[in-house]
Design a protein that fits this description.
The structure holds two protein chains of two kinds.
Chain A: H1 6-15, E1 20-23, E2 37-40, E3 47-51, E4 56-60, H2 65-73, E5 77-78, H3 91-96, H4 104-107, H5 110-113, E6 114-121, E7 126-130, H6 142-146, E8 154-162, E9 164-165, E10 169-175, H7 180-191, E11 197-203, E12 207-214, H8 216-229, E13 237-238, E14 256-261, H9 267-273, E15 276-281, E16 286-291, E17 305-308, E18 315-317, H10 322-335
Parallel strand pairs in A: 1-2
Antiparallel strand pairs in A: 3-4, 4-8, 5-9, 6-7, 6-8, 10-12, 10-13, 11-12, 14-16, 14-17, 15-16, 17-18
Helix pairs in contact in A: 7-9
Chain B: H1 8-12, H2 14-24, E1 29-30, H3 33-36, E2 53-55, H4 60-73, E3 77-80, E4 97-100, E5 107-111, E6 116-120, H5 125-133, E7 137-138, H6 151-157, H7 164-167, E8 174-180, E9 186-190, H8 201-205, E10 214-221, E11 223-224, E12 229-236, H9 239-251, E13 258-263, H10 264-274, E14 283-290, H11 293-308, E15 314-317, H12 321-332, H13 334-341, E16 343-346, H14 356-370, E17 374-379, E18 384-391, H15 398-415, H16 434-437, H17 440-453, H18 467-475
Parallel strand pairs in B: 2-4, 3-4
Antiparallel strand pairs in B: 1-2, 5-6, 6-10, 7-11, 8-9, 8-10, 12-14, 12-15, 13-14, 13-17, 16-18, 17-18
The chains are: A alpha+beta, B alpha+beta.
Bound molecules: flavin-adenine dinucleotide.
């Protein structure tokens, strides 16, 4: 099913008698998702409004991410949260997954750039929230609630974003000799100074990588200061600007992929406990690791959570506390009382 | 302003309720009518009502104990930070217990490595930055009330400030909270990077105006302080040209930390009061950029080039701390200045920046029609307007005309694609205009969220939603049935 209008989509949902899986491009599915009858959003496409001088974009949910990125690039702008461009990915899927890339350390996640939504609830109601202005505290912020809800509360039909100007100069710098643990200390040192770092990660073969963006003279001044600050970790060299694209998890055949969110200060202990770290992003707050298939990593106590993102079923450690679990379940019950919506990607 | 009838059965049990509260939290209960009067309103002082009692807990556990009692007794609860809300968000009703967070001001943790600070939510906004200042960090959201307002209130209202063009508002700088639900259960929301495993509950709690739970602790993102900052002032002979200049600056990819706009009536009033030496002009912009001195020079040169294309009547770049202070002086004293010469009502609508010229022209017409002056000062980078409607409180009928004009201006904001409030919140002030911006299903979806967090609608329930829209839920309270 691939409705061409929001009204048609609402009608399908109202008439549905069995669960539906909401699918954009199907590129961000997690274990267990996409199993029910598929309701595709890809026919709901097109940019409804773009005002570069106001940094505002409104776009229908099924629009390919690539189209959105191209339209913005033509005006020297971008989605600041830098979602990874998986072929076929839709903007609705990006929001449903709250997909956010390296620049999150500077400008925040997808949910931070999302300023308005339209969606259809599980009982077929068309709801709007937020709008097309950056500052808005009129009523509850359901846009945030929808971001990352993975198609369990409603089907997103239209999204509004705050866009970000593309900086004239972008420089990737690296400390190639560092292993993951040593990299955390270097990234922390960089992020705790006034350098306006727009990416701070670690990759095998690349070491610690940092990104500086802005006006030309400004970048060169900050680069000098940063080199001095990081001298104890080695010489800051020109890095590979393509490295940022490698940070996104790929499916591996030799184990299950886990995504771990933690405080950067907790990252070294977590890294030490993991058999194979694939990548570290967000200055140490995001770790991707491979764990032998079907097993759970023995993680030290930490303040975030770990999610298995490949395999058959989703696993989240630690399990949510009972109050949070109740709030999650009841919200889902309210927005989708007949349990029609079965998740998206 | 209409408020629901207080629950007489709650009022009749006042002494028993006070006694129960006192037993749970000795020395924290205020129920002497002479003292509860201090809590009868917030900064929207036109509306007042002393509460049943006030409790000033010192810990999350005490908040939980108080809420368990209120929940069991069916007593409405109003959370309160510093009471600086301009929307009546912390105004009580006669049957309500106010829970004030003013004693909960501790810093619980600072980690510069993790770029965060954890505080009790009664702590003031400015003192959060103060706690990390010596470490070279700051907390970005900076409402003008930052000396007084509490972090809990900032979270309640999702407050912003002059610098939010670059750093975002409260929701973009909040990583987690400890919150007590109305039934007394304690929950932690958010996590590292502000991210929890399930739904983004933190995102919906921020800005929910004390209706979902009482936030007792908050983890906030702190940022390294920039090396320096410098403002410039540009004056124009038309508001339209000033608006076009703002658009061009943003279009050029420059993101200053602040772009503030003042129109002639506002400049004139401010000059009489603060004598900042602003030029005689129709509109002026104050633009601030950050970085090391050479970085600032580089940005200012670009802004200068853009501004010059709009033939400004004056372009003033600060070259010293003293000049910077003078440039900001007028803007910072604008509200106080207006208050000296007139009674005024401060609106808080948001519009798409592209609609600025049209909206300013319409406001001028509407102001003439209503026979009331309007002065405009606002955050131009993000379209958050603060039209100040001048009236005479002693003149019969003036307040009513002022309120009607205010409502018309807010309707105009929505009509051009904006919204009713950009930072002050809905509270009781804009509650009855919510239908202008939202369809019934939109409001219903929001109220469903409240149903889940506070099924009996005891927390600050007469706010945000039009009274008729929330009536059946509020009246569904078991004790009121
Ligand atoms: C002179 C002046 C200038 C202002 N400038 C700005 C500005 O620039 N930007 C801006 O955004 N606002 C501004 N405001 C409005 C106001 O200061 C903000 O809304 C502020 O966040 C309110 O904080 P407070 O602690 O005073 O909250 P209160 O007024 O006590 O409460 C505000 C709301 O939050 C709820 N609440 C308070 N504490 C908690 C808690 N712990 N848990 C759950 N809910 C809670 C209350 O129930 C109420 O709904 C200004 C106000 C004044 C008087």
């Amino acid at each position: 099913m691939q409705p061409e209008t929001e009204l048609a989509l609402a009608d399908i949902i109202r008439k549905a008698r069995a669960p539906l899986s909401i699918i954009g491009g199907g590129t961000r599915l997690r274990p267990g998702e996409g199993q029910a009858d598929r309701l595709r959003t890809t026919a709901l496409r097109g940019i409804t409004l773009y005002e570069p001088e106001a940094l505002i974009l409104v776009v229908r949910a099924g629009t390919p991410l690539a189209d959105v990125q191209a339209a913005l690039k033509a005006e020297g702008q971008m989605l600041g949260f830098e979602p990874d461009a998986r072929p076929g990915s839709t903007i609705g899927g990006v929001v449903a997954a709250n997909a956010s890339g390296p620049r999150r350390v500077q400008v925040g996640a997808c949910r931070d750039a999302l300023i308005g939504v339209r969606f259809v609830t599980g009982d077929g109601q068309i709801v709007k929230n937020g709008g097309r202005v950056m500052k808005n505290v009129t009523g509850y912020d359901l846009s945030k609630l929808m971001a990352g809800s993975r198609g369990t509360l409603g089907v997103l039909t239209e999204l509004s974003f705050r866009t970000t100007p593309i900086a004239p100069v972008s420089q990737t710098l690296s400390l190639p000799g560092l292993d993951a643990t040593a990299a955390i200390a270097a990234l922390t040192s960089a992020l705790t100074g006034p350098y306006e770092i727009s990416g701070a990660a670690w990759l095998p073969g690349h070491g610690a990588i940092l990104r500086l963006e802005g006006l030309e003279r400004s970048v060169s001044i900050r680069r000098k200061a940063l080199s001095a600050r990081l001298a104890e970790f080695g010489e800051l060299t020109e890095g590979d600007p393509q490295a940022w694209l490698l940070l996104h998890p790929n499916i591996h055949s030799d184990g299950d992929l886990w995504r771990i969110i933690c405080r950067p200060g907790e990252a070294p202990a977590l890294i030490a406990s993991l058999p194979h770290v694939v990548a570290v992003d967000w200055g140490g707050a995001l770790i991707h690791a491979l764990v032998p298939a079907g097993t759970q990593p023995a993680l030290p106590k930490f303040s975030g959570h770990a999610t298995r993102i490949s395999g058959d079923t989703q696993v989240i450690l630690p399990a949510p506390d009972p109050v949070t679990a109740r709030l999650n379940a009841e919200l889902q019950g309210r927005f989708d009382p007949r349990a029609i919506l079965q998740g998206a990607g | 302003m209409q408020m629901p009838e207080p629950d007489q059965r709650v009022i009749a049990r006042r002494d028993a309720i006070s006694a129960a509260l006192r037993a749970a939290v000795p020395d924290a209960v205020i129920d002497d009518p002479a003292e509860t009067r201090a809590y009868e309103c917030d900064a929207l002082a036109a509306y007042r009502c002393p509460p049943l009692a006030v409790v000033l807990p010192a810990s999350t556990a005490e908040v939980a104990a108080i809420l368990r009692i209120c929940h069991a007794e069916g007593v409405p609860v109003v959370p309160r930070g510093a009471g600086t809300s301009l929307a009546g968000g912390s105004m009580p009703t006669a049957d309500a217990v106010v829970i004030g967070l003013a004693r909960m001001t501790e810093v619980l943790e600072i980690s510069t490595d993790d770029r965060l600070i954890r505080v009790q939510t009664g702590r003031t906004n400015l003192s959060v930055s103060g706690a990390v200042d010596g470490l070279g960090f700051f907390y970005a959201p900076d409402p003008s009330s930052q000396l007084a307002c509490a972090i809990g209130g900032n979270i309640g209202m999702n407050s912003g400030g002059a610098h939010c063009l670059k750093y975002g508002v409260t929701t973009n700088n909040l990583l987690g909270v400890t919150m007590v639900l109305m039934d007394g259960s304690i929950v932690e929301l958010g996590g590292p990077m502000g991210e929890a495993a399930g739904l983004d509950l933190l995102g919906v709690v921020c800005g929910s105006e004390g209706q979902l739970g009482i936030v007792t602790e908050a983890t906030l993102r702190i940022l390294p302080k920039p090396s320096g900052a410098r403002p410039l002032l540009v004056a124009f002979d038309s508001s339209e040209v000033a608006g076009a200049c703002v658009a061009d600056i943003i279009r050029a990819g420059i993101l200053p930390v602040a772009i503030e706009f003042m129109d002639r009536p506002c400049i004139r009033a401010t000059e009489e009061f603060a004598k900042a030496g602003y030029p005689d002009c129709e509109a002026l912009l104050i633009i601030e950029v950050e970085g090391t001195a050479p970085e600032i020079d580089e940005q200012l040169a670009l802004i200068r080039a853009i501004a010059m294309r709009h033939a400004p009547i004056e372009f003033r770049e600060s070259r010293s701390e003293a000049e910077s202070a003078r440039i900001w002086l007028g803007r910072k004293s604008a509200f106080g200045a207006m208050g000296q010469i007139n009674d005024y009502m401060c609106l808080d609508g948001t519009i798409p920046v592209s609609a600025l010229p049209k909206v300013l022209a319409r406001i001028a017409d509407m102001s003439a029609e209503a026979g009331l002056g309007v002065a405009n000062v606002f955050h131009a980078g993000d379209g958050n307007m603060h039209p100040l409607i001048l009236y005479n409180a002693n003149k019969p009928g003036d307040l009513e005309r002022c309120e009607a004009l205010g409502a018309d201006i807010l309707r105009l904001c929505v009509e051009v694609g904006g919204c009713l409030t950009g930072e002050h919140g809905v509270g009781i002030e804009k509650r009855d205009l919510m239908g202008v911006q939202f369809a019934p299903v939109d409001l219903e979806a929001q109220m469903q969220v409240k149903d889940v967090f506070d099924p009996r609608w005891l927390l600050n329930a007469a706010k945000v939603f039009p009274l008729d829209a929330s009536a059946s839920r509020r009246e569904g309270r078991p004790n009121a049935a």
